[in-house]
Automatic annotation (TrEMBL):
It comes from Lysobacter gummosus. Keywords: Dioxygenase, Oxidoreductase. Residues 1-12 have a biased composition (Polar residues). The keyword Oxidoreductase applies. Residues 1-20 are annotated as: Disordered. This is Alpha-ketoglutarate-dependent dioxygenase AlkB.
Length: 195
């Protein structure tokens, strides 16, 4: 029996389902030309930060660069092409996205550890959408509950991963290090925040 109406599917592009759509992979949402132009714009114009976090009582640098914007309050700060991209994704998914998080993985040594997106500030039942640009990187999704089933998705430029709010309670996602990857990747995470 499946608990919480969450269940595995056999469709690699829709590995997890739930009442809010589960986790879906949508390839080819933006074409190659759009992705290359947007990558260039963000590479040069985004306000990239490096962040630090505590690990084993030491302050370590997070192995990727990040930037974040509000769509509702910071119109002038956003590169117009990013704003247009976010608007198109919002229309496609019928979601009132108001926040944009950018991640820059300079090469395969950059990564994000398995985590679920923090829900306290996110509107219930609204999806999280991640657009990929640049190098293809693998996303690993892992059930929090034993036996910790895992799924792997190769995130191509122009694709969207759409994760339900509900899925964040039951699954972690991450971008593991990929030593063979020498090219950079940028991801654009769209969310609906309460505040
Ligand atoms: O880069 C990605 O595809 C995932 C990013 C992510 O999980 C996040 O920003 O919370
Ligand atoms: Fe995340």
């Amino acid at each position: 029996m499946h608990q919480n109406s969450l269940f595995d599917t056999t469709d690699p592009q829709h590995p997890i389902d739930d009442a809010e759509g589960g986790v879906r992979y949508l390839p080819g949402v933006f074409d190659r030309d759009w992705c290359e132009r947007l990558f260039e714009v963000l590479w040069h114009q985004a306000e990239w930060n490096s962040q630090q976090r505590m690990m084993y009582e030491r302050l370590v640098e997070v192995p990727r660069r990040m930037a974040s914007y509000r769509l509702d309050r910071e119109r002038g700060r956003l590169p117009p092409m990013l704003e247009e991209t976010a608007q198109r994704i919002g229309e496609r998914l019928a979601a009132p996205f108001n926040s944009v998080g950018l991640n820059l993985y300079r090469d395969g040594r950059d990564s994000v550890a398995p985590h679920n997106d923090k829900l306290h500030d996110l509107a219930p039942r609204q999806p999280i959408a991640v657009l990929s640009l640049g190098a293809t990187r693998r996303m690993t999704i892992r059930a929090k509950r034993a036996p910790h089933t895992q799924w792997h998705m190769e995130l191509e430029a122009g694709s969207l991963v759409v994760m339900s709010h509900a899925s964040q309670h039951h699954y972690d996602h991450g971008i593991p290090k990929s030593p063979g990857v020498v090219d950079p990747r940028i991801s654009i995470a769209l969310r609906v925040r309460h505040s």
